[in-house]
Amino acid sequence: MRKRILSGNRPTGRLHIGHLFGVLENWKNLQEQYECFYEIADWHVITTKTDTSDLLENIIEMAIDWLVVGIDPKKSVLFVQSSVKEHAELHLLLSMLITTSRLLRNPTLKEYLQNIEASQITSKKRAFDSFSEAVVSKFTDISSEVSTREKNDHIALLKSKLKDIFLEELNHHGIVDSEEELTYGNLITYGHLGYPVLQAADILVYRAHVVPIGQDQLPHLEITRELARKFNATYGEVFPVPEPLLTEFAKILGTDGRKMSKSYNNTILISEEPEVLEKKIMTSYTDPGKIRRNDPGHPETCPIFSYHQIFNKENTEEIAVSCKSGALGCVECKRNLFGKANDFLTPLREKRKEYEKIKDTVVDILNEGSKKASEEAKNTMEIVREKMKLWAS
Question: Which domains does the chain show, CATH number per domain?
């Protein structure tokens, strides 16, 4: 019997070449060796984004890209997370087995808090400025109100009034709703804090044996492993403790030299039209040290060379030598890349256009996959309920 894999993506719409070479190529190969469950994790989207107006469209767009690159519904189960309600049930039960302090040590959460800290500081500065102005305007009223009181009572009331004004200003600027939120709690939602538990439920509800991840993601999987061990020790053996399937995911640079990400607006889509593809490549960031054509280049730090390594492997050695010697100019290098990249992406682009004509079929594929996933999840939850001695209707 083949071992089982669970992996997934948050639906953010059409995928880029970072997804293709960083994840999807690996998924395609894994489905030949494992029983694969691939999840469109729509509930995970709303842990950090409340606007769901484009969610349904993004699910379809991402599913099309999966199919285009070779994720085969005859070999793998493709499904939508929210279609399988057992994820939510197991999430609830697992949440009873983990402490808040453990979730606060989650590396991804710490990174998120650090990333938003700057914007929060700016918001707080505005609130403090507004608070100062409010204090000046209110001070006279407060003083007259307590003019006949004893000094200590005066100070106590003054502090109380100023505190109320301060909280009012923070609330007005959308920073906190109450005094209790003056700490980190105002930066994250309950759902965001607990998303690793939902992630654990995603994996454990299918009793997956392995999870394909990169070395840097090991701490994230460890929460799932801890919960599996804790449940098994508390209620009896149900879940395999999932092992990491360490994979060297390709790190694809964006057109601006940073990590390729939609949030940076530096992506090249799998479905990019030729004219857009050409514009993105020709305006891409290149080696800042190579100002003139004959200047020696540094291909190891240039996004264009990294794209040649993907789309033009057979010529990368020659390109590197010519770039370093100054014989190859950046414009010529980009033009050569566009031809190779367009040749590679054209069949994928054409295949996508065919799927766009039959979106109902894509929906049927996801619905069928969700039924298969639901059957497996129901089997798991029957065992879970029995082990936990829960009411069975």
Answer: 4-102+192-252+359-388 (3.40.50.620), 106-191 (no CATH), 262-357 (1.10.240.10)
